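Regression test attached.
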Amino acid sequence: MKKEEADLLRGTLELLILRLLRAHQLNGWEIMQQLQIVSGDALSVTPGALYPALHRLENRGLISAVWGPSENNRKAKFYALTSAGRKQLDRDRKNWERFSGAVAIVLRDA
Amino acid sequence: MLDQLKRRWRALFHKEELERELEAELRDHLEHEAAQNLRSGMTPDDAHNAALKSFNAIERSKEECRDARGVRLIEEFLQDLRYGTRLLAKNPGVTLIAIVTLALGIGANTAIFSVVNAFLLRPLPYGDPDRLVMVDSQYRGQSSGVSFADFEDWRRQNNVFDDLAFFNLRWNANLQFRAETETLNLTFGTANLFSTLQVAPSLGHGPTSADPDTVLLSHGLWQRRFGSDPAIVGRQLRIDGRSLTVIGVMPPGFRFPFQSDLWWLTDRYFNRQNRGSRIDQTIARLKPGVSPEQAQAEMREIAARLAQTYPETNSEITATVVPLRDFWFGKLRRSFWLLLGACGFVLLIACANVANLLMTQATVRERELALRAALGASQGRLIRQSLSEALLLVSIGCALGIVLGAWSLRMLVALLPEELLPFFVKIELDGRALMFTLLISLVTALFVGLIPALRTASVDLDQSLKEGGKFGASPRMQRVRGLLVVTEIALAVVLLAGAGLMLRSFTRLQNTSPGFTAENVLHLEINPTYRRQEDYRVEFMSRHYQQLLQEIATVPGVVAVADNSDLPFVGQKPWYRGEFSIQGQSSEDQKQNPLVNYQAVSPDYFRVMQIPLLRGRVFTDRDTVMPDGRRDVAIINRRLAERMWPNVDPIGKRINCGDDGNGCAEIVGVVGDVKHNSLVDEVGYDLYYACFQSYSKQTHFVARTQGDPMTLANDIQRAIWQVAPDTGVFNVVPLTRLSANTIWQSRVWGLLFGIFSGIALVLATAGVYGVMAYFVTQRTREIGVRIALGAQWADVLTMILRSGMALVTAGLTIGLAGALALTRLMTTLLFEVSPTDPITFGAVALCVILATLLACYIPARRATRVDPLVALRYE
């Protein structure tokens, strides 16, 4: 049960990361904070889940890393969406909408 | 895609950098967190502790981050390789043996595959070669060559060929260039020969109907003789006293049908009248979608129609259609596959041996492996490790094997008689051969790696860790190793049986007398240049030859010299064979007569060749040109005499021979039988004329010499050129070379099979030795106990030998059974040896028993010297 939850989360987490990176370059910490804020504290992610997800996305070429100064003026790793990532985001988003819409219909009507 | 590769590359080769980056990234995160904790009002201590807690979680995620790089498998593989290298380096002896064994197996396969590739696999160098077929006439089931009249009818009447072309197999011409005479192979053909082959000249153009007296050059001749002069097209060349215009140069490497340098392609000069003169060849291109079988069916009908229309010349003539590759190599095909099979056996034995070796290693390391398994290494990981080790060994073996293969290939090429092979057979290591080598190496690595690996994978952890050093003797392990050794012996026995049969067959062949003595005889081919039309008259030619022979006879060291227009063992010359009849024979009886080998010889021929005269007389100098150009004397061989005149003296009988109307001759002598085509073939029917009464533009001289004939080659050629400087003299070789050429296949196959079976025997013996030596080591303690309890050395010896010979007996039995089944495939390759020859099989069994007995005896002797005190303290 726990494993399935994790898998489900992993897919969604990656989608959320891509979405958050659409407008800005962010580092890991910022992604974590943004997720919490934007979702109104409904969603949170641990670093243990976040960083592997970032590395996987980077390895798939969906996001790329740039080293830049963080707000405390140290070198930090920022992530940016690549064009492949942008396409992937569109696809995943449509899938998600279809899926969640379907779930909603079933929950309402079944 | 490229980015992906770049990232992988970085992950593999810039690992530290990546690690530093990961470290920095995570530290950055922790700092943020600690700062936030402080901001949210935690005490510094609490903030520190909370951060630490997070840190632990993050540490764990590091491994997952590394996995995300996607190179874990490769990393582990590299680790295994490093580990494997260390292990292999620790046992240099074992490693070396394994590598050499593999290199032998792989090298042999590489070499033989290259040969098979050159002969059977590489596409023939013509356009769309699979549609090319040879069309031949057959007379009583034997191919006879094609006459031009038949060819023209075939060309007109068929619906299955795009085109048919006509050419001769063997002709020579003298090229006179800058006062030098060089004899070259010239091919006459119809104008459409190259368009049928779909090969175009690289310079100039093909033949046109406007000028029949034109010639095309080979690229090699053009380079060598004319310095690649592009202005060669349009130039006149003196060829055999005629003036021919060069119209083109063929592409590099192109020759046809054998090693031709000149092509004279025109339909004009072929003999349309004599339909019965079947001496040339036809090549044809099938229409798209037409199979050789369909073409064969149609040609059979056409031949039957011709037989009705021309009963005189075609009554027993059929036509066959043979795909081009089969025409060249049909008879060789089976021996090539057999050879490759033998090579495969050698490789299998090598694999079994190395697998066995690695298993011994694995046994020694079993405890270590068990420990690793206990510490959590997955089975898959352990198998992968064993495979990477095997891969390492095989890669080195493969590299060495390719070197070995390339080297042995050069030796092999030297064994093949180049002059008998078509031009396109180029034996070399090409991409296809290398691919094959890599493929078999991969399979080898799997085989060699998986057997010990599966063994490792099934290790019983508890047992192995508990029992200390003794687990290696586990009965299951011994069984697998025993099985490998039995397989090795069985395979080696099959190879030895094959090699033994080849060897016996070859010695039989070598000891077969051809009916003449080839030793100390020099062979020369003679092609005089005739300038005027009257030079082609018999009187002129015979006088010319007589002069040449007289001059050669004066050369010191020449015992005797003679002339034969159609010498035995000269290949590619079908026109010597013909029909003959006895005077007054009814035409019905004539059909029963055998075909005879016509030869025009000078009086000393039988003396030079040492062919015994059985009856009557040989020719003399008085058997010379008759006023009306008739031949009046003939000599026949014993077989023809017995066939035609059983129990009657043939001397004085009169025969009709030849189709030129000059052939009414009286038999004056009977001589011994001679093998005409090759040492392998049966004795045929020979009919000799006096050469001074016969017409033959080209001929062969044979000179019996004192000592090595080649030392006189220059003197004899000088003598010829003294008489006629424009005489072409070529193919100057000892007669023994011609006779060796007729059995080159036997020689080469025998040698190769011999080498392969030798390797197989050594490897199998080494395998037996390995297993037995290990067996003794494992049982040192038991042996010690036995000796302590009073066992004699003979008892110990018997015990070890018995268990060793049990393996040998099993292998031998299986091997002999397999050999009995497989050597049947060799029947066509053997000469007067049955494929189940009991002597060969007995010798093979004895040989294997002796070799393996030795392999068992050495460890057994060691066992008898075991000191019980030492043995009991052992372990």
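Expected vs. actual: identical. DSSP finds four helices and three strands in chain A.
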